[in-house]
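SAMPLE LOG
Freezer: B-3
Tube label: C17
Construct: single chain, 627 aa
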Amino acid sequence: MSDPILGLSMLGLIIVVIMLGFPTAFTLMGLGMMFGFAAFYDPSQSWTANKVFTLMVQRTFGGMTNDVLLSIPLFVLMGYVMERGALVDKMFYSIQLAFRRVPASLAVATLIVCTFWGIASGLVGAVVVLMGVIAMKPMLNAGYDTRLAAGVITAGGTLGILIPPSVMIIVYAAVAGQSVVKLYAAAMVPGFFLAFLYLVYIIGWALINPKVAPKLPPEKQQVPIPAPIRFLREQYSPNMFLATFKALFAPAKFFNAPVDARLSFGKIVQNVLAVLTPFILAAVTLWGVWWYVIIHQQAERDAQNVPVATQVAKVATADKAAPVEEGLVSLDATSNNVKTKELEEVDVPLVALDAAAGDAPTAGAAEPEAAAGPPENFELYFGLSSVLLLLLLIYYYIKLDEDQFEILKLLIESVMPLGILTILVLAVILLGITTATESAAVGAFGAFILAFQAGTLNFDRTKQAVFLTAKTTSMVCWLFVGSALFSAVFTILGGQSIIEKWVLMLDLTPIQFMLLSQAIIFFLGWPLEWTEIIVIFVPIFLPLLAHFQIDPLLWGTLVFVNLQAAFLSPPVAMSAFYLKGVSPPSVTLNQIFAGMMPYMFIVILCMFFMYIWPGMTLWLPKFLYGG
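STRUCTURE (predicted):
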């Protein structure tokens, strides 16, 4: 066989071997070594002098010295610590009470917790298993349709691999040589939009057919009111906003209250702060938006507005002193210059992917679009949004009774700490304050603090979290080693070039190529997991993006959304098997598959919106980083 035929045989064989159940990483390494040995074989030399061994060492060393991979164990540790710390039980209870009057309230609460928990942990298996344990039985006991209950858990659990911080995005960034922070920004809006489509589907199904999600009985919708809150209502005011401030300035009644209703002055102050929390969050959000768009960008414009002579001097100095910044090169791009059997020595260098994937200073990766000024009519929209938010707050405080106040306190205790940690981790990455690895370290440290504060993390659970982190990280690292060797040999054999020639012969338009590539990835998601698709098949399409003038951020984000189907499509739908392992015996695998299938079509609908409106994906990275 010719070398290109060997390459195509190698690609087809990998699919067969993986479907037979062999470990992906070692299959990649084994086939890479076998076909590489054949590609470099020279009868005049000893078999030990075969250059595939040199290639294997280079690829392994390059993968293991990739600094951006440090963020993977840290983000994974963050997720496992929070999962083992059992921080989600009270969150589900409080969110379920908050949405108790919404159709399919248990399913809505499950989706919200899955989304929120998936963002914090980024672990599909952990989220599906955890929510299967917490939410499956309550939904079935409430009379929910099994397909609805199974579908919302499996689909919601997969969102963690899409919405940042996501391990899949880090892996893609290292394979494609793209910036992690830009990919995080690009995936943010589509991820939440997909969650919104799931929510619309759940509520719409419940409205059309109320039998699939019966209303909860009144006793399940009641909020348990502690004695101090009842005393606050009876002695001060039915409105909790007024009652808490009256108690702050006239606390004598509390000091003389019965023992079960008595509160110290410190607790009274805590109630006031709890009441003010929605206002504080709204004010901080508005101030943050104003600071970034107006104040921060004005400072950037002032910094750029320097005399021409000073700019020339800086450029001349930079030309003499500053090193040339490395371009963003993927794992496979360097292999395109390797000729089959004609090499004097094998030298397939691995680029410094840490700079490509976000461990170079984020703000310096691209010129910010500060010079363009704030968006048109920003002040008008900001003012209207502020007024609308103020009106909503006024309405909320007017309607704030004891039930709503107790729910607010439960949400503050269960959701707010994790929410602050998650927002902090994402904000420091997207705003260029830290690199992805440093942000992951902050997140892991914060997860330990939250778990210890909750008193749910002991030595055994910590040991389990560390062990699972090491196991997951080892799997990802071995995949990188195997895929690096496999892709290099595949390119050396000419497999990449023959695929490129075939695609170019089709004379496709950019849209047709986008549809073809995403359709292939979609169908590959049926038998394969996302890891195999990212490390084996995605690199085949990457060199063709430049020819069709397709933005790799847009294409990559479409791949992320597309790969949601890999968790929701039988026969290798891992979410279904995760859920089946913790579900009651009456729940069959076919019921879980039936519940998952509608969400596959929702994924396709989301991709359709991304096709017709690329700004959904590209607006945020362009606004934050320019380009």
